[in-house]
Amino acid sequence: MRSPDRRFVLWLQGDGNLVEYAEGGGTLKPLWVRGDKSGWVLWVQDDGNVVLYRHDGTALWWSDTAGHPHDRMLLQSDANLVVYSASNRPLFANKPYPPWYDVRNVNSLKCLYDAGPERVTQNPCVRRSGNETFVLLPLGGDRFMIETLPYHARCLEVPNGVATPAPLRSRDCVRSVSQTFHWNPVGPPGRGTLVTETSHTAPFNCVGVIDASKADDAAVGQSPCSGASSQLWDLVPWTAPA
Question: FRET partner for 233 with CA separation of 20 to 30 A, picked from 51, 175, 217, 221?
Answer without folding.
Answer: 175
